[in-house]
Give the backbone structure.
Amino acid sequence: MKKTKLINRIIVLALFVFYMYALLRVILFKFRWRDMTFLMHQIQRNLGNPDILMYQLQRGNLIPLKTIFINIQSLSWWHDFSNLVGNIAAFIPFGMFLVLLSKNKGMSFIGVLARSLSLSLCLECLQVVFSLGIFDVDDLILNTSGGLLGYCAIKLYSKFIVNTPSIVQDRDIVEKQEFKNIEEGGMNNKGLKS
């Protein structure tokens, strides 16, 4: 039993590492690969010239819900739809993995909220530092919402699917009880014959 749990944990951990790699590729690098030379050049240029960082921040969105409302109003465009739904969907697995990797599935709602927000904030800041995108406070909101949805989904799954006895388990319980009753009835009949 412990060996199976260990193997399952290793599999979940490996999937989490693969997921984090994919998340970095999608959010930070926008599906393009950047070599270390390019990234080092970007960070040296940007940290050496704070005006570039200020410009990157000024280009960004620091007004909560601004981009979300714009995206909702123009959902007919693929970019707007993918930005809105994609930022949520990208973090749903993160919330699930946090629960699955925590001891005894003990990750709290607040814990997932804090970790989802922190990861999203790190990714947004890295986009600015590497000049790979713009900072958008709405991405923080959407990413964090995705993490919380993943948390809720795994908790509901655990509560209703895993902890709910199946029909087969119910039948086994009934059969064991009937067998026990027959055994006890047989013992009582033996006692009467004596």
Remarks:
- The chain has a mean pLDDT of 85.
- The two ends are 46 Å apart (CA to CA).
- The longest helix spans residues 2-28.
